[in-house]
Amino acid sequence: MRAFRRTKGDMTFDVVNYGLMTLYALMVLYPLYFISISSISDPNAVFAGEVWLWPKDITLEGYERIFSDTLIWVGYGNTILYAAVGTAISIMLTLTAAYPLSRPDFYGRNLIMLVFVFTMFFSGGLIPTYLLVKDLGMVDTIWAMVIPNAVGVWNIIIAKTFFETSIPGELREAAFIDGCSNTRFFFKIVLPLSKPIIAVMVLFHVVGHWNGFFDALIYLNDESKYPLQLILRNILVENQVSNSAAMMMDVESYAAKQRVAELIKYGMIIVSTFPLLILYPFLQRYFVKGVMIGSIKG
Amino acid sequence: MELLLNKEKQVVVVPRKTTRRKKIMRNWELYLFVLPCLLWFIVFKYVPMYGIQLAFKQYIPTEGIWGSPWIGFQHFTRFFESYQFWTLIKNTLSLSLWAFIFTFPVPIIVALLLNQLTSERYKKFVQTVIYAPHFISTVVLVGILFVFLSPTSGIVNHLIVLFGGEPILFMARPEWFKPLYVISGLWQETGWATIIYLAALAGVSPALHEAAIMDGANKWQRIWHVDIPGIRPTIVILLILAIGNIMNIGFEKAYLMQTDLNKSASAIIPTYVYEIGLQRAQYSFAAAIGLFNSVINLIMLLLVNRIVRKLGGNSLW
């Protein structure tokens, strides 16, 4: 395309386009940048609106208070536990179901697929599901966090599509002629060939658990089982910082309390979100791949 | 396969019938593979569907769902006649509609523009930046809203005061609920939503672009006459899905953004179901409202799919 001379109109288009895209990127970045600098600035300066581009009177007070609070560490620990157990369960259920459904010689695949896909369009809803989980005795246990939402139809479709397109039927036939069983074929050949899709699904599930709060909100009452996001909600949205004794013990006046509370909020956003945001650029291509595989069938 | 002689004494090949039993027996292990997942779907998806009958019953905890007495459509009539009914419908519909009007077309426009960036590296950079907010949790997003919009210390109100305005109590104002919901949604999800369109745009044949350039088309004309028709099928399918989900608005963000003061705008059907069902434990009434919502969703999806198919576009099935 180099051979063609760019017209004046196209030049203008490019200038405007670059400007717009840069502006958009800045609009996404600035709030995150502002939170970062506010979390290490003097709360009085932030409160007065003096922090714009650079941190002012750098202090780590907010982080010291956050890290001295046990509740947050408990939340972190719970989230990691739920993410690990939940992801393992989800991956196991998803892959073992998706593989047979990808096999053209699997009798009944359409019926089973219909059973799965139907739930995408109609569901029992919140209340019957809640009562079921309650009747199963899962309320206030880790199981409520990892089982009721373990499987997503979308993930099954993604995995099934992957198996269909990247495990050739000839490979299977050759293995069977050599006397390989279905089970052995799945564990020795299919799974090792499916590392990319497993990586994608692990990432999506881990992010889902890391960011999820709804299940915890409805199924957990015991504070010691709360995942990070629920604790975050109490601090960021419900404004319960001042109730947290460990964080605010030594702050005397009400005004000072409010300022420190704001500082803690900025710090909390960083502490809870940045592990993901820092890892994400390195894993970006896996995430994007996941969206693409999912959309082939869509 | 078997070789047989037909009436004219010619040899014909007849495939041996594989019986259903044989087909199943040959892959018996695969059925064991599917079993756990199938059981999960039956227990966690189909049992709750069976539990929908709660909507037509008067739930008595000691009797359970099955033992509670039937009361017909009482819960539905109670809901339709309640004073919140029209507010809820209005809030749910207008919130979804506003969210849809902005969050559907904006990613398409952004993807078309991104696709025109001449520097591949800069394009990658912008993509990396704009995908990032997708990984921020709803809780943190709403937390950021509260912190930024705080009337005393928030950066937004500092700006307003700087330009001589009065601080606005954003989170306490019903009229601000919808704009904030939509804007924060755009900030968080626009970038991520471009992925599919960018993939579709990558599939548009370069030959078409070259031909258009030969014919003297400028960039605008190429976007309009080459790119947009090229991603039309993708747009249509995502449109069907989006409209089908229009009443399926996310509970989480609306619930978190809800304050006592903005409730007249932020009370939507899902938050109401949560409030009635789980906070006040009126299970059967809440189940009825939830059912009402799911049925509307289903009807919307079927309707849109049918209309699109009539118009000769692609359809979901």
Automatic annotation (TrEMBL), chain B:
Pfam families: BPD_transp_1. Residues 89-304 form the ABC transmembrane type-1 domain. It comes from the Bacteria. InterPro entries: MetI-like, MetI-like_sf, UgpAE/MalFG_permease. Belongs to the binding-protein-dependent transport system permease family. This is Sugar ABC transporter permease. It is found in: Cell membrane. It is a multi-pass membrane protein. The chain crosses the membrane at residues 30-47, 95-117, 129-149, 231-251, 283-304. It comes from Fictibacillus nanhaiensis. Keywords: Cell membrane, Membrane, Transmembrane, Transmembrane helix, Transport.
